[in-house]
UniProtKB/TrEMBL annotation:
It comes from the Bacteria. The keyword Transcription regulation does not apply. Substrate binds at S174, R190, D206, L210, R213, E309. In the N-terminal section; belongs to the cytidine and deoxycytidylate deaminase family. One of its GO terms (molecular function) is NADP binding. Keywords: Hydrolase, Metal-binding, Multifunctional enzyme, NADP, Oxidoreductase, Riboflavin biosynthesis, Zinc. GO terms for biological process: riboflavin biosynthetic process. This is Riboflavin biosynthesis protein RibD. Its EC number is 3.5.4.26, 1.1.1.193. NCBIfam families: eubact_ribD, ribD_Cterm. Residues 6-129 form the CMP/dCMP-type deaminase domain.
Length: 378
């Protein structure tokens, strides 16, 4: 195991902080940050990746450091790339600039790079190390990493429930269970996602926009000034072609106010939709959409993170298909009673061995509600 110094830790922590600046814009590319420093930890240049097609983090940092890059150390949250993608290889740029040591937090899971960037640097006589603050770096790009390794996106299911675990009234209406702070928190999660997925039952009952209202996010001016803040694709599962064209999601808005819509159904809808709506006929298993195929399709569309806002039926079906990575539950201090709808429907577990286990990763109070985050042990 490589021993990293205190300066190494400080520099990589700064690179991770920089990488986060891209969390609303880089997809399908990963969030990457880079710091170039001398041996004493004086920062000579720094940068972060803003957008697919735009320069990578290292290029910005090298540009800022200029001549001072010679003999310096580059700290990068992801292994420098070795390939000609939309931009030339960062490994070449580092070699040319005369950097003598490169520390990467993690190896790039992208098979076109994966290890080759570090080898290229070593062959040019540059000392390379990796694994510094790796867990934090992986946290930045969970969706990208999962998609590169499995072809599937990272799926987070958000549920909001009363204290007695009910997500909606009997009639399906689920708006306003949680308070304004929890709803603002949801906006932040939507903004970090490549797509927001919902089912026809929820969309008909609540008629949500499923967009990001950036003005409600209290973002700092630097982030708000970015022109490319994304509006996630809205994926609506409508196996039985129930959605009327009059729904909020299906009406058109200016591009920066709401994302495009992918309607996933069994047969083409009869409705004439606005331009932002496209349709995809998914395969079925019995009379239900094949959710594995749906997620595979979303992975092929280069979507890294899917944020699911749905009712207990769809959440239960995703759970049963082992398609959920993470669960976020907002629980409100309210009681709905026995007639309300359950968090997860249709999981017929009868023996303890089959109980689905989760691992808590965070529990906190958000306004008047409790927010619980857990990973599903699939
Ligand atoms: C880096 N630094 O800042 C990023 C990297 O199509 P391109 O040229 O943008 O390449 C995208 C791939 O490059 C991406 O999938 C990942 O493997 C790597 N991303 N690499 O060294 C960066 N964003
Ligand atoms: Zn690169």
């Amino acid at each position: 195991m490589t021993e990293f110094s205190k300066i190494d830790h400080q520099m990589m922590a700064r690179a991770i902080q920089l990488a986060k600046c891209g969390e609303y814009t880089t997809s399908p590319n990963p969030n990457v940050g880079c710091v170039i420093s001398d041996r004493q930890g004086v920062i000579l240049g720094e940068g972060w990746h803003k957008k697919a097609g735009a320069p990578h983090a290292e290029v910005h940092a090298l540009q800022q450091a200029g001549e001072f890059s010679k003999g310096a150390t580059a700290y990068v949250t992801l292994e420098p790339c070795s390939h000609y993608g939309k931009t030339p290889p960062c490994a070449d740029a580092l070699i040319e600039a005369g950097v003598t040591r490169v520390v990467a937090a993690m190896v790039d899971p992208n098979p076109v790079v994966s290890g080759k960037g570090l080898i290229k640097l070593q062959e040019a006589g540059i000392k390379t190390e990796h694994g510094l603050l790796q867990a934090s770096a992986e946290q930045l790009n969970r969706g990208f990493i999962k998609r590169m390794r499995t072809g599937l996106p990272w799926v987070t299911v958000k549920l909001a429930a009363s204290l007695d675990g009910k997500t909606a009234l009997k009639n399906g209406i689920s708006q306003w269970i949680t308070g304004p702070q929890a709803r603002q928190d949801v906006q932040r999660h939507r903004a970090r996602s490549c797509a927001i997925l919902s089912g026809s039952g929820t969309v008909i009952a609540d008629n949500p926009m499923l967009n990001v209202r950036y003005s409600e996010l209290n973002l700092n001016d630097d982030v708000l000034a970015q022109k490319d803040l994304r509006q996630p694709l809205r994926v609506l599962l409508d196996g039985r072609n129930q959605l009327p064209a009059s729904l909020n999601c299906l009406r058109s808005f200016e591009n920066n106010l709401a994302g495009n819509v992918l309607l996933v159904n069994g047969q083409p809808s009869e409705h004439l939709f606005e331009q932002h709506v496209s349709q995809w006929q998914a395969p079925f298993i019995g009379n239900k959409l094949d959710l594995n195929k749906v997620m595979t399709k979303l992975g092929e569309m280069q979507l890294n993170n899917i944020w699911v806002e749905a009712g207990g039926k769809l959440a239960g079906a995703l759970l049963q298909n082992k398609l959920i990575d993470e669960l976020i539950l907002y629980q409100a201090p309210k009681l709905i009673g026995g007639a309300g709808q359950n968090l997860f429907d249709s999981i017929p577990i009868e023996v303890m061995d089959e109980v689905i286990e989760l691992t808590w990763t965070d529990i906190r109070q958000v306004g008047s509600d409790i927010k619980m985050t857990a990973l599903i042990n699939n």
